[in-house]
Specification:
The chain contains two helices and four strands, in the order E-H-E-E-H-E. It is an alpha+beta fold.
């Protein structure tokens, strides 16, 4: 069975949102969902708002990451979540 690599764009709620705190909470949600965090990058969105581009891997047999996405949307630091890419990884 292959792994699935997912890239999410987590847009922060406010320009003054603590990025490090948001990253810690995102990492905690991913790891509590039993997924493997692959990396995080910061991207400018507009008007001082930033997004955390988050990549994680999950077993293809799991099927979806809907619960994780919902949990991330409920974080006070996050205003929206967008799936950027989903791809299979073999190896």
């Amino acid at each position: 069975m292959a792994d699935v690599v997912v890239t999410l764009k987590c847009v922060l709620a406010e320009p003054d949102t603590d990025i490090n705190e948001a990253k810690k909470k995102i990492k905690k949600e991913i790891e509590s969902s039993k997924f493997k965090l692959l990396g995080m990058d910061i991207e400018d969105v507009a008007f001082g708002i930033k997004a955390i581009i988050t990549r994680f891997a999950m077993d293809e047999a799991i099927g979806n990451y809907d619960d994780l996405e919902e949990n991330l949307k409920n974080l006070e630091e996050i205003s929206s979540i967008e799936t950027i890419q989903v791809s299979r990884a073999f190896g």
